[in-house]
Design brief:
The chain has 5 domains: about 180 residues, no CATH class; about 110 residues, no CATH class; about 120 residues, no CATH class; about 220 residues, 3-Layer(aba) Sandwich (Rossmann fold); about 240 residues, Rossmann fold, CATH 3.40.50.300. Helix 2 runs antiparallel to helix 3. Strand 17 and strand 18 form a beta hairpin. The mean pLDDT is about 85. The protein is of the alpha/beta class and about 950 residues long. A 7-stranded parallel β-sheet has the order 21-22-20-23-24-19-25. The chain has a 6-stranded parallel β-sheet with strand order 26-31-30-27-29-28, with helices on both faces. The chain has 35 helices and 31 strands. Helix content is about 40%, strand content about 20%.
């Protein structure tokens, strides 16, 4: 905007915002290099310029920039002509003054509204003067009006006019016009406003006054029982000088010498301003010599708050003695001070009520009951406490009078203590727990205060450190009767941690007793195997099947039940005094209105624990459902929870509500991820888990029928025919274990029969995938059979899960696209045929591998697993091997583990080795074992 060598001078306007910065071309300077911006006027102005050894008037033509345009150009330009550099410095100084709030409204001599820069501090006045003194002649070469001989104007006046113009122009932004409409001092139009003359002159006079006033409040002392406000005078030239107004009557000459001849008139002007915002000051105007104001208690209290603020805005400060303190605070306390050591059980007893009261403190130190009584009886704005004057806020006095509030139930008290907020009579306020409740809250909030729990001797495993911490947390929460939700990632060992908790509770008579584990049907077998493996001395019972019963239940027994059986037999199950009830895959009870959730709530237990890898999937009502079961009453009713937390948090409207909810639920929810810094180093690079599932009724019927019919044929066959029948039998049984639809050849699209609920493996796969996907991870699913993969693909598509499916018929180019897509995270589930994809692929995005069926060749399975567990994999990989309980799959898997000779034979020749078994051995191998 500024051309090289072009000079600048400011042309003042009336009002100030109409001023312009003139850019003109001195002799010998190149012409303007381009087309001037649109809207910039060309004008001619007479300047005083050097001529020979003197000066002369000369008319120059240049561009007149509006103030806003000029400021923008100046502050961003590289310094050019010395005059432009001077006005650049002036623009930056003017902007600093505006940023400091140095402007006030006024009227021009013609009656136009105009903002002026000022009033200035002494340092700011010095800065303006220094800038003006440094101005080169070209920056202020306008002729001085009426001067003879001709001379240029004073730079100080021109710099001041420029600052006024910047203030008047830049304040009138489009936003100001939009907010204030056509009100004065916001619009850009030039209009005369004679009605504002008196107000503007008084405002300007106040700002320009050399004398200001203040009120010094004196508290009652000796015989004087009233508060009083003493009028004091000050001068801007000597801030340390303070003169009482009474001296205008007793020493007028001395006051005039100290403050100047306008001291009294400026004092009266200030008093009139004060009287307009606080009426009691009008009494001072009636005195011949205004000196002091006797205050009622209400007036004194006004000067502690709103009146002081209003007078300050009018330029009148209010000073209270330093010994008067505003150090009284009120805290809503729950519990009883000085009563630590009460048992948590007693505190949280359903019939218990906890004190809820206001505690008043002075400087952080609690007042005694006697002191709070004195405060409650006080009728004055200040009270003498502990040898000091203390402001007695009416709200604090009211709370001291009614300091005992309605007592709280244990869960109401715990909720308030954890969130730090309580509500009574429609008012919400901060609160804190004291005494035994305070100790309890500290214990459940701070992991470091928990008593370490030793690993139970009966547990046949070594817990990792984070599992020990989880055990300690569960043990404490259950001992307190509070329960909790263990929400660790899949693969971190929630099952073994719960088994350790059961064993730990048996060591204490107060917590010993049977444990009920409620889980999906697909996990029954897995729970039983894990319990038998890690707690072999503990009796385990499946409460499942037609012959289920709870007769002769051992004191330390673990009972396994499905959610379906719970719905049917809740009354029977409720007759047992359970020490602990655990809900595995607790997302099954996230719907608070579902029958399963209601029946689970109706089960009595001394402690409740929820196990889930996904505590919240869709909305916060799921979190309420989980914690309202583990810790009833903590979150209040569902309607209250939705109103207080869920709606605002889900809409992203209230970060504070999210913080309050986090403080409340944090102690009851333990969530660890595999990626956590304290967890990852403890995890092995690869974990293999056998996932045992039960057959459905349909699978059981098909399995037994095929065994019966085929074994009859085998017993009558020999040689190659017999071996062929054995292989046919094994293949059929493996297909039935996978899914009846595979054996019945329902993999064609023309079959619309639902696949859910017909296979224990498919149901378990659904459980696994739901958790894996919810945790943001990816999975490879291997099967030997293309037909089974087709069924899984169809089933997952119906559930809305995106998949890729690679098999032997997939073209090479498509294989590469699939691998790249999976590695880029386009889909979370990759279905693979074991033969087609068992080798040669790099699929390190996957952190889970599922072997849907068994190859009976560990080397082949390991090769498939290594698609994910290979160089480039920087996260732990979890391998899930799905095994149908009691079937040939289960028996071969056990044999492979226990009999090395058979394992070597199978590894060498696969299923063919089993064709050499005798009829009796084969019958024993394929016979369906006992299932509940």
């Amino acid at each position: 905007m500024l051309e090289a060598g072009w000079a600048a001078v400011f042309l003042a306007g009336e009002p100030a915002r109409l001023g312009r910065l003139l850019l003109w071309r001195p002799a010998g300077v190149a012409a303007w290099g381009g087309v001037p911006p649109a809207g910039i006027e060309t004008t001619s102005v007479e300047l005083v310029l050097p001529h020979g050894r003197g000066v002369r008037r000369r008319s120059v033509t240049g561009f007149a920039l509006p103030v806003a345009v000029a400021v923008s150009a100046l502050v961003t330009a590289v310094p050019l002509h010395v005059s432009a550099t001077a006005w650049q410095a002036a623009a930056r100084l003017a902007l600093r003054l505006l940023a400091d709030g140095r402007l006030y409204p006024s009227l021009t001599s013609e009656g136009y509204d105009s903002w002026q820069a000022g009033p200035f501090t002494a340092a700011q006045r010095e800065g303006l003067a220094a800038l003006a003194d440094a101005f080169p002649p070209h920056a202020h070469c306008l002729p001085e009006p009426g001067a003879s001989p001709v001379r240029i104007c004073e730079p100080a006046a021109l710099v001041r006019q420029f600052c006024d113009a910047v203030a008047d122009a830049l304040v009138r932004t489009p936003g100001a016009s939009l907010a204030m409409g056509s009100l004065p001092y916001a619009w850009h139009e030039v209009r005369a406003l004679p009605a504002l003359r008196e107000w503007a002159e008084e405002t300007s006079a106040a700002l320009a006054a050399g004398v200001t006033v203040s009120l010094r409040v004196d508290v009652p002392e000796g015989r004087r029982k009233q508060f009083r406000a003493v009028l004091q005078l000050h001068t801007a030239h000597d801030p340390a000088l303070v003169v009482e107004a009474a001296r205008l009557g007793s020493e007028p000459g001395e006051v005039e010498r100290l403050l100047g001849p306008r001291a009294e008139s400026e004092m009266l002007l200030a008093l009139r301003r004060g009287a307009r915002v606080w009426q009691p000051m009008a009494r001072l105007l009636k005195d011949a010599v205004p000196d002091q104001l006797r205050l009622s208690d209400d007036e004194a209290f006004d000067l502690l708050g709103d009146a002081s603020d209003a007078l300050g805005a009018a330029g009148i400060d209010v000073h209270w003695p330093r010994e008067v303190v505003k150090a009284l605070t009120a805290t809503a306390e729950i519990g009883q001070r000085g009563a630590p050591g009460s048992s948590a059980g007693g505190l949280l007893d359903a019939d218990a009520l906890l004190d809820f009261r206001w505690q008043i403190s002075l400087g952080g130190e609690p007042l005694s009951e006697t002191e709070m009584d004195a405060l409650a009886e006080s009728r004055r704005p200040l009270i003498r406490l502990r040898d000091q004057w203390v402001i007695a806020d009416p709200k604090l006095v009211a709370r001291a009078k009614r300091r005992r509030m309605d007592p709280l139930t244990p869960m109401e008290a715990l909720t308030a203590a954890l969130t730090g907020e309580a509500e009574q009579d429609g008012e919400t306020f901060r609160c804190e727990a004291v005494g035994a409740l305070g100790e309890l809250v500290a214990r459940i909030r701070d992991p470091d205060t928990r008593t370490p729990v030793e690993q139970p001797a009966a547990l046949k495993a070594t817990l990792r450190d984070y599992q020990k911490r989880g055990l300690g947390w569960l043990a404490q929460m259950c001992a307190l009767g509070l329960g909790g939700c263990l929400a660790d990632d899949m693969g971190l060992g929630k099952t073994i941690t719960l088994l350790a908790l059961h064993l730990h509770r048996q060591s204490n008579p107060a917590t010993a007793g049977p444990t009920l584990v409620v889980c999906p049907a697909s996990l029954l077998g897995n729970w039983q195997r894990e319990a038998e493996k890690f707690a072999p001395a503990t009796p385990v019972r499946r409460y499942h099947g037609g012959a289920r019963h709870l007769d002769k239940l051992a004191d330390d027994e673990i009972v396994l039940v499905t959610y379906g059986v719970l719905r049917r037999d809740r009354k029977v199950l409720a007759e047992t005094a359970w020490s602990l009830v655990a809900a595995d895959e607790a997302q099954h009870v996230k719907n608070p209105y579902a029958v399963t959730a209601r029946e689970l709530r109706a089960l009595p237990a001394r402690a409740r624990v929820a196990l889930t890898g996904t505590p919240v999937e869709n909305n916060l009502s799921e979190l309420w459902a989980l914690l309202d079961w583990t810790t009833p009453g903590l979150l209040g009713s569902l309607a209250a929870f939705r109103n207080r937390y869920a709606r605002a948090i889900e809409a992203g409207e209230d970060p504070e509500a999210a913080e309050r909810l986090s403080r409340l639920v944090g102690p009851f929810l333990l969530r660890r991820k595999k990626s956590d810094p304290g967890i990852a180093p403890e995890l092995p690079p690869k974990t293999e888990t056998d996932r045992i599932v039960s057959l459905t009724r349909e699978q059981t019927s098909l399995y037994e029928a095929v065994v019966r019919e085929t074994m009859a044929k085998i017993q009558e066959s020999e040689g190659i025919a017999r071996r062929g029948l054995v292989l046919k039998l094994l293949t059929a049984l493996k297909q039935i274990c996978n899914h009846p639809a595979q054996y019945l050849k329902e993999h064609s699209l023309r079959y619309s029969t639902p696949l859910s609920g017909r296979s224990g493996k498919l149901d378990l796969l659904d459980e696994l995938l739901d958790t894996i996907i919810a945790e943001g991870e990816s999975v490879l699913v291997f099967t030997q059979y293309k037909q089974m993969a087709t069924l899984i693909e169809r089933h997952l598509a119906e559930r809305g899960t995106s998949t890729l499916f690679l098999h032997g018929g997939t073209p090479v180019a498509r294989r590469e696209e699939m691998v790249a897509g999976f590695q880029d995270g386009e889909v979370p589930v990759f279905l693979l045929s074991l033969k087609a994809a068992g080798t040669g692929l790099n699929l390190t995005r996957a952190t889970h591998v599922v072997h849907y069926d068994r190859w009976w060749n560990p080397a082949v399975e390991d090769q498939a697993t290594d698609r994910a567990y290979r160089i480039g994999q920087d996260r732990p990989v979890q391998v899930h091997k799905l095994i149908a309980e009691g079937t040939v799959e289960d028996k071969v898997a056990r044999l492979l583990e226990s009999k090395r000779e058979l394992a070597d034979a199978v590894v060498g020749s696969g299923e063919a080795a089993l064709t050499e078994l005798s009829d009796a051995e084969l019958a024993d191998l394929v016979a369906l074992g006992k299932q509940s």
